Amino acid sequence: MRLPEKRTPPRSRFLTAALVHLGLGLASLSVSSGCSYRVVSPPARMINLESAKTASRGETVVGAHAAGYAAIFNPGALVASAGVRRGVTESLEVDADASWAHVSYESSGDNAQPFANIDRNIYAARLGTKVAVAKWAALMAGAGGGYAPAGGGFAALDAGAAFSYPNCWVVPFGNATVFGSQPIGAKQVDFRSNDGALVASDKADFTYGFGLAAGVEVPLDHARCREGRTSTRFQLGVGTQTMIPGHDAVTMTTTTTGDTTTTETKDQRYGVIGLAAGFEVPF
Question: Per the confidence metrics, is the pTM higher than 0.70?
């Protein structure tokens, strides 16, 4: 006889939700068919404000970006990154960036507690390149990795394309990327209720996904822009990330009338959306 599944109590839902947003090596809470406890491997690039414009030959462009992500019923994530671009030719640049993310969480109610014993920070770095195939289109690719204290290390590859309308006033842009991320030294994450009882456990596996972004880039040095060089610029956009874990199930523990039974849940896709802003200066 099959035992009915027991609904996850609200306090466990808050416990699970605090571990994951944007994947980033932690766990995720599904809202489409109940709670699903997952540990995923994240992308190396966490903010993607990219127009088709590449740094000109010999230019060095440094910048900083920040983003805030959210999802319905899930916690948020704050992300910050700093990077540098170097123009190799008029249509080819190489770039490097480092990122930090923190899964934000706010308790709600008497039984909702943050996880005091789980580090919710994620650190990543990436090397990449972008090549302009037209004034309005560019291809990009990169490789990187990082470490999440709660979930372990990871290595990731990504590729994508960026499109924009070049001008020296307001440049609208859009881009799309795909990524694959492989955990390295993955750690098991145990999800526990406030009384210490084990609710679920999981370990990161290969994760793949995609991202979409759109926004505007505002050149601030019009004379430099008209010369075809990179202007000091401000960027503002909105982005989404979808992560798909490669494994099929997560171990769940459910207590019913004194008995403990193990069940399996199917994979879920985890989608987040957020706002990002950046500022870049050429040298």
Answer: yes
